[in-house]
Amino acid sequence: MDYPGKTPRQLRPLLVGFRKASGLTQAQMASHLGITQQTYAQLEAKPESASMERLFHVLSVLKVDIVLARALDPRTWKRSHPSVGG
């Protein structure tokens, strides 16, 4: 399933959700990353302040890939998906 995001603040619920879906606690994530639980909690609370390198490491532990895609113009999307949304 894809989870599009337009702003860095949208990362927080995604990171929490992926971590919980993986069955990991913040302490376990921190251990995998070689940081303290408090540091990981801060990263999860405000992921937009983390470095890209740190975020990629977190996503690697969670086995989550980043896929970049050009944003679609809503008119183009409707033409290519006529049966969805009217």
From TrEMBL:
GO terms for MF: DNA binding
SMART domains: HTH_XRE (SM00530)
CDD domains associated with the record: HTH_XRE
All residue ranges annotated as the HTH cro/C1-type domain in the record: 15-69
InterPro entries in alphabetical order: Cro/C1-type_HTH, Lambda_DNA-bd_dom_sf
Cross-referenced Pfam families: HTH_3
The name this protein goes by in its record: Transcriptional regulator
Organism: Paraburkholderia aromaticivorans
